[in-house]
Structure formats: C-alpha cells, structure tokens
Amino acid sequence: MIRVGVNGYGTIGKRVADGIRLQPDMQLIGVAKTRPNFEAETAAQKGYPLYSAIPERSHQFTEAGLDLHGEVTDLVDESDVIVDATPSGVGAENCSLYEAHDTPAILQGGESPDTVDESFVAQANYDDAVGADLLRVVSCNTTGLSRLLEPIDREYGVDKARATLIRRGGDPGETDRGPINDILPDPVTLPSHHGPDVQTIFPDVDIDTLGVTVPATLMHLHSVNLTLESAPSVAAIADLLSRQSRLFVVPPELSIDGTAKLKEFAKDAGRPRGDLWENCLWEESIAMEGNDLYLFQSIHQEANVVPENIDAIRALVGHKTAAESIALTNDRLGLNT
Ligand code: NAD
Q1: For residue range 104-132, what is the model confidence (pLDDT) as tens digits?
Q2: How remote is the CA of residue 109 from the centroid of ligand 1, in Å?
Q3: Is the ipTM of this complex over 0.90?
Q4: What CATH number is given to the structural domain containing 201?
Q5: CA of 304 to the centre of ligand 1 (A)
Q6: Structural domain of residue 154, as residue ranges?
Q7: Which of 19, 79, 82, 182 stands the most exposed, by the fewest C-beta atoms within 10 Å?
Q8: What CATH code is carried by the domain that includes residue 84?
Q9: Cα 209 from Cα 149, distance rounded (Å)
Q10: Annotated catalytic sites, by residue?
Q11: Ligand 1 — pocket residues by CB below 6 A?
C-alpha cells in the first residue's frame, strides 16, 4: 500500500483525494486544510482524516466541531508520498517541508518547472519520473495538449504545432474571477506560457500557443492545428485518437455542440461532480488540408489532471509500469464509462 497525504484540499485536491481512495494499492492518510469550511466538513463526512495546514489555526477546527488528526508536518511524516494541491506558488514554498521529512511530493501546474525534478504527463514520460523526489503534474491545458500530441507525433510526426486556447475565466466556484463581460487576449503577446510548458514534456516539439480568456466556467476549448510529416486520412486520425484511453472522441450522433452539453452528459452518466477526466474532441472537427490537421478539443480543467496525479504517485515509488498504472487508474476512476 502506498500511503498518500493530500496537502491543499480545494478544486484539485479534493478530486485527487477521492481518486486515491478508489485505488487498491493506495491508502489516503489524510488531507490538510487551512481552515474549517464546507470542504473540510465534507472531507470529515467522507471519513478523511483532517490535518491542520496552519498550526495557529488548529483551534478553529475544534471550535467548528471537526476532529483534527494532527498538523501538516504529521501528515508529511506519516505519508510515503504527498500530493500538494495548494494554490500556485504555495507548493514551491512547501518543498522544504517535504525535503526535511524525506517525503517525495507531487506539485501542480501552477508551479514553475524549475522547482521540480520532472514535469509529468503519464502517457508521455512516466518512466522519467520513477524515483524522483519532486514531480509536477503539468497544468490542465498542458496535459490536454500533451495527451493529443503524443500519439500523433509518435504515429505521423509533428513538424509544427499551433493552438489557440479559449480559456474559462474561472472555475464554477471561483466567485472572484472574470471577465464577466469581455474577451481578453491573454496574454496579448505570443506565446502563451502553454507552448513552453508543453516543451517540458516534449522538448523537441515546435509549438506556438495563444490564449484568450472568456466569461465561461465549465471547460477550456482548444483550436488546434498540427502540421504533420505526412498526410494521413481523417479516418486514420480519428481511429488513432479513439484508441487513446484518455481521449474521448465525441461522435456526431450524441449531438453535443459544446462544453455545456459535454458537462451535462458527464452528469447524466453519473460521473462524480460531472467530471470529465479525458480530453473531449469533436470527431466532426477533425480535418486534413494537405499535411495540416485541424481539430477542436475541450478540457475540463477541474478534472483532467486527476488521473495524472494518481499515476504520478505510482511513478514516484516505481510501483507499476506506465501501462499498468494508467489501466488501473482508468479502471478505478471509471474513465471511458
Ligand atoms: P484551489 O484554490 O481550489 O485549492 C487550493 C486549496 O489549498 C484551497 O483549499 C486553499 O485553502 C488551500 N491552501 C492555501 N494555502 C495552503 C497552505 N499553505 N497549505 C495547505 N493548503 C493551502 O486551487 P486549485 O484550483 O485546486 O489549484 C491548485 C493547483 O492546481 C494550482 O497549482 C493550480 O495551478 C493547479 N491546477 C488548477 C486547475 C484548475 O483549473 N482549478 C487545473 C489544473 C491545475
């Protein structure tokens, strides 16, 4: 059993904790929270041991009627691996704590790649992560682009990748984000940080990315153009992509015209929180013009890095091969169902 602690129990942390609980080879030691709020309450209801991330605030948990199992240092001590899902920048500050306890840790995409030994996408570089001390599961957009690039580059060779990322203004629970009535070039200069971030996974891929932020919360949408070394048919591309376990090629028969219906589909299917762990790419959007491939894909930013975090835990302890870990994670989460 791999004993895992989750430090930072927000959008990503609570989903990763639920995912860990479903794995047969992992034990969730507990979750560290900064304060008692609705997420602390539901964590306690689920039976997740609570740890105080800020010792001076420990009394607030007891005052709110929540039992504490200890402080974050205890969680780090008791865990074989820590998943740090704290806000951008906090993860880097926490690294000295993990190093002091000799506990390997997984940071998230908001951290700089320079902070860690490896940036991680399971299907691309699992083996490089084995035995590392610090890993970074790259951001939702970088994960989404990497999952798409990997099979296409392997099969057909990508000469040049270009992607425009239409980014959600904030997650559904983020009341302080925006814009609420605008369309922002974000950033206005080329490139957005996503292209260089993809190169932490695929150093040799030539990629330019642009970002636009819009008043939406559900998902991101990528408009992708890949110049390939050959000119496969649309059917061959669709077939290749539909065989990738973390890509969902949306068939036209489902009449899903955008991100709202994708999320509705996930909720109707009984997915927890309506989560879409896979890239969702529209089969009808796949087009070839000469050697140029075009398509649209959507990324559920709150969910798509969850399977990568689970695989990253196994990679850190060298517990299974990439293929074994991906298959087990998919099976236990319920991907492709
Ligand atoms: P979030 O704000 O929803 O959750 C972060 C949690 O950490 C909150 O509960 C916060 O109270 C807690 N926290 C703050 N300081 C802490 C500390 N010192 N110790 C322990 N906990 C602390 O943030 P999020 O969206 O889950 O993002 C977490 C990381 O994941 C970031 O690096 C982000 O860039 C990355 N990420 C976010 C998304 C997304 O769309 N939400 C997608 C992919 C990656």
Answers
A1: 999 999 999 999 999 999 999 999 999 99
A2: 10
A3: yes
A4: 3.30.360.10
A5: 15
A6: 140-299
A7: 182
A8: 3.40.50.720
A9: 13
A10: 140
A11: 7-13, 32, 34, 53, 85-88, 90, 108-111, 139-140, 171, 301-302, 305
